[in-house]
Amino acid sequence: MIKRTIDRILSEGEGRQLAWLAALALTLFLLLVLIGSFWALGWTDILNLYLDPGGFPLETQGGGGQGSLNIFSLIIAFGGILILNALTVSAFSNVFDNISEKYRNGERRYRMRGHVLILGGSRQLLGILKALRDNHGFEGKDIVVMTSGDVESLRAGMETALDDKRFASRITWYRGERNNEEDLRSACPDHASCIYIIGEDDESAHDSISIGAADLLNGICTGTGAGIPCYITLEMHSSMDVFQYLPKEEGSRLRTEIVNTSDYTAEQLLVDTPFLPIPGEGQFLHIVIAGNSRTARSFASVAAHICHFPSFARDGRRTVISFIHPGIRSQMDKYVANHQSLFDLSHYAYVSPEGREDFAPKKEYGDFLDIEWEFINGSIASPFVRVELEKWAADPARKLVLAMCSDDSSVNLSAALHLPKSIYKAGVPVAVYQKDHVEVLEKAVGSGMFGCLTCYGEASPDNDALLLRRSLRGKRVNYVYDKQYGNPPAASAEEAWAGLSFAHKLSSIASANSIPLKLRAFGLEPTQASIDALDDDTIEALSEVEHRRWMASVLLMGYSAAPAAERRDRSRFKELKDKEFVHLDIAPYSELAHEADKDMLIVKNIPSII
């Protein structure tokens, strides 16, 4: 701590360095005055010798204690030479300059313990730092940021944006590669209280580097001791797919959470707010997504995980998710190929000004999913799409929602402010993805002229940059299952979570994410009294919705269904699930009476989960 404080002071410019030299000179002078008092040597005599060593008496006078006095006078003279001589000052300045330069460049290293370690200097960093500052659970903790970029410019940018000198003094900046073991060890990850692997902006191999860093950390953070939460943010959904197939971690204290950043951004809008309307009797939810970015695909993925309603069993009404983008046919083919097991069971369509081409589920599987898809060829501003939007907004059976999901915030804002007037008049919810600034959007909302605009993304004031909310409810869902089916059950939710594979963690999180919308769809409160008051038919309806939610989640995770003729033979259930990623429970709810208790278990424990 002292070493870091000195380094920080020395890095802050020549004025501070000179102040330290002056303090050192004064300290030595006061020490000499104290010692000189034993010879009754006045402070003015000491000062004369200290400032002017050339005044040292060369002739020896007297004996006895006079020789000792002359030796002491010589020490004073040499002290003045060493401390005040210009060459010495220059030498000290060079030393300090070297320390200062290394500190500014992130080349100094310190022994850290109990710190928060952030690996990377990407766009996420500012949000994480602000959240650490404002979260009482991290109060007083040191923070280490390691980046492969320019440390000095990153520090300056962050400190300007934070505008909090006291908090900035808690941050130590390192230059290093997160996939270099020596650099990682220098940051003392095995003594950290929490680790974030966020990477750098515009890295061509962002996910691979971060996954490599996690592998190195698993090797470093071994032995006994408390688990270390480690959040890895990945950009590509294909990277997430790989983790579905990996077994649980063994032999490491690292407690890894894999988070797709754009998925989590969408979750915070669709799960944690009442943005989505609830379809009533004879109605369905229609989510229209403008864009073909990762952000757009994440919005669709999260919606498909959670948007399951009793209207499907009651009226056969499916949730419709529509992508709008110019030249979307090739992107549709790619999206379908990436989620082939989902689209084998789905209704979907390609729509253009020339007409509509429909695709149905494969007959051998059956038709039982409650999500359908559209891929619309056009821009949000094209006349064809605008006519469709106006028609949809006027349809009383359709609960319409729009999401502007380009990676370019200005494109999203422009699109949101130039929709057909009927969209605004109908009060259609419109989500506008924003990365940095929301001032213009806030002004637009305040004007009352643009209907129901909602900001989501990194610029949202409710953005949970620390990723803490995401796993909390997932841990509780898993603990409910573990208490019922664990052999033996874990002692705590944390223990049960630590022993889970990535696929099961994501499944539990998806289940938890669906609960707020499920409560709104059935008009329930998250209290035990509300759940206990439910009749059997409502419990059954909730359980069926949970089953349909589960099917969408596991299909998006990469599991496949079995043809209907093969689902009845469950003798190879575990082998198919674990080795071939084929799940026999991806089937109509009516076929799974023997599994209904699992869905009901979640329903009956909603209060303890939420």
Summarize the structure in words.
- The protein has 610 residues and is of the alpha/beta class.
- The chain has 4 domains: 2-104; 116-262, Rossmann fold, CATH 3.40.50; 273-456, Rossmann fold (3-Layer(aba) Sandwich), CATH 3.40.50; 514-609, no CATH class.
- The protein contains 30 helices and 14 strands.
- An 8-stranded mixed sheet has the order 10-9-11-8-7-12-13-14, with helices on both faces.
- Helix 2 (14-36) crosses helix 3 and helix 12 packs across helix 13.
- The longest helix is centred in the first third of the chain and has 23 residues, at 14-36.
- Mean pLDDT is 86; it is low at 60-64.
Properties at a glance:
610 residues, alpha/beta, Rossmann fold, eight-stranded mixed sheet, 30 helices, 14 strands, 50% helix
- Helix count equals 30
Provide the low-confidence segments as ranges. 60-64
CATH topology of the largest domain: Rossmann fold
| Number of individual domains | 4
Biggest sheet, spatial arrangement of strands: 10-9-11-8-7-12-13-14
Mean pLDDT across the residues is 86
Percent of sequence in beta strands: 5-15%
Number of strands: 14
Task: Provide the CATH top-level class of the largest domain.
Answer: Alpha Beta
**In angstroms, what separates the terminal alpha carbons?**
41 Å
Structural classification = alpha/beta
Major sheet description: 8 strands, mixed
Helix coverage percent: 40-55%
Basic shape: elongated
